[in-house]
Design goal:
Strand order of the largest sheet: 3-2-1-4-5-6-7
Largest sheet: 7 strands, parallel
Strand content: 5-15%
Number of helices: 16
Number of domains: 2
CATH architecture of the largest domain: 3-Layer(aba) Sandwich
Number of strands: 13
CATH class of the largest domain: Alpha Beta
Length: 428
């Protein structure tokens, strides 16, 4: 059986739960029934850090600090496939450029996004992110001793240099790399020329038109569904409470601050208000689950403990691991997969937007499978409204059909079968 080598750029150690690790956990599970597979995790962090001993069969870890450019990585590791995003992300763009030069297929899963929101993003949204350029840490730091002046900015520059060195190695259009790419960095527009040859698997049919409008080739777009939900499809979560005297609530804060969409004041205000409102009610039981890689426990725990030190704050693991005994999940705008996992688990959803960002109409609210809360004083009422939301089951089924394609546990199979077909054709 031929071994297929897949290279995946990742901004943390692969033993940390994140979208990429879940994606490949499910994908490789099916691929191993067809062929041998070896995952090559290309880790790019501010400094080389192998403090965690990562040893898993059929996987290896290499570090950006051992290479100057993406071309040299490909020549040494000789991957058959590369997983890279078709956007302006410096590391992904470096690898997709080098892969095109080396004639190595590149693929990516483009998830369901609120296209109306992305079309409305402005330069101001990006400038808010650049305010964090001078911060002394990055979201994936795990040790307070890692803090240093201009750490985030230096990391940004180092990634940019990796891209520039790659383009020099490939003798590419350096002007586009040095200047043209900044148009897309600043206004957040994904242009097809950055990933026109990338094979893109889409979470739903609606994404096709959006990607074509962005300049991507229709022939490279394949609707598959999202493999991260495959294993979740087979779970039988408990939706019945053993104790009827309280409502169980999971608060999953979004990473709006970590990604530059919120100020720290907005993040802290949201946390404080949600915790305060719920802690005052004896019939509500709250737990908090922050993002396993983008958020920091030290940023959230002190805020929560100041209000109620009995409320647990968790970070490890995926959100799906905390949904078993939950009645309602609370999120905030710009949430990622937390809302989708909750929907699939038939949990009621409240989205707290205390800053009334009217340009962001959450798809879940629009399709009446979630309740919006615009004022902290209305949070308890919003929770109660979510529990009695009319036509929830019917709306939920319609939402899944429209935005999650065939949620049947076979998204990995559809992607793997297509990739194997592409690799077979490349041999001819």
């Amino acid at each position: 059986m031929t071994e297929i080598r897949i290279l995946i750029p990742i901004h943390m150690m692969p033993n940390t739960t994140n979208i990429n690790t879940i994606f490949f956990q499910n994908l490789s599970h099916y691929m191993k029934t067809k062929s041998k597979i070896h995952l090559i995790w290309f880790v790019y962090m501010p400094e080389k850090d192998f403090t965690t001993n990562y040893q898993i069969n059929d996987e290896s870890v290499i570090d950006i600090h051992d290479y100057d450019n993406a071309y040299d990585v490909l020549k040494k590791e000789k991957p058959d496939l590369i997983y890279a995003s078709p956007d302006w992300g410096f590391i992904d763009y470096a690898f997709s450029s080098a892969a095109k030069y080396c004639k190595i297929p590149v693929f990516f899963l483009t998830p369901n996004i609120d296209t109306k929101f992305f079309k409305r993003k402005t330069i101001g949204n990006k400038l808010m992110g650049f305010r964090r350029f001078f911060e002394n840490s990055v979201p994936t730091d795990t040790n307070i001793n890692q803090k240093q002046f201009f750490r985030r900015g230096r990391f940004f520059i180092n990634k940019y240099l990796f891209l520039i060195k790659t383009q020099f190695k490939l003798k590419s259009d350096i002007f586009l790399t040095l200047f043209g790419i900044w148009k897309h960095v600043l206004i957040g527009v994904t242009d097809g020329r950055f990933g026109s040859d990338i094979i893109q698997f889409l979470e739903n049919e609606q994404m096709k038109q959006y990607m074509v409008e962005r300049g991507f080739k229709k022939s490279n777009l394949f609707v598959s569904g999202n493999p991260i939900y495959d294993s979740f499809f087979k779970l039988n979560l408990n939706n019945k409470s053993n104790q009827k005297n309280f409502t169980r609530i999971l608060f999953a804060p979004s990473t709006a601050y970590e990604h530059g969409l919120w100020t720290i004041q907005q993040r802290d205000f949201t946390i404080k208000q949600i915790v305060k409102q719920i802690s005052e009610k004896d019939n509500l039981k709250l737990i908090i689950k922050i993002h396993p890689s983008s958020s920091k426990l030290d940023d959230y725990s002190p805020i929560v403990n100041q209000i109620d030190n009995k409320i647990p704050v968790y970070q490890k693991g995926g959100i799906n691991e905390y949904l078993q005994d939950i009645d309602v999940i609370i999120t905030s705008p710009f949430s990622s997969s937390a809302e989708t996992y909750a929907l699939l688990a038939q949990k009621r959803i409240v989205i707290c937007d205390f800053f009334k960002q009217d340009d962001h109409m959450d798809q879940l609210i629009e399709h009446k499978v979630a309740v919006s809360c615009k004022d902290p004083s209305m949070l308890i009422d919003s929770i109660e409204n979510a529990l009695i939301l009319k036509s929830y089951e019917e709306n939920r089924e319609n939402f899944i059909k429209k935005f999650l394609y065939k949620w049947d546990g076979n998204s990995s199979k559809r992607i793997v079968d297509k990739l194997l077909d592409i690799l077979e054709k490349n041999k001819l």
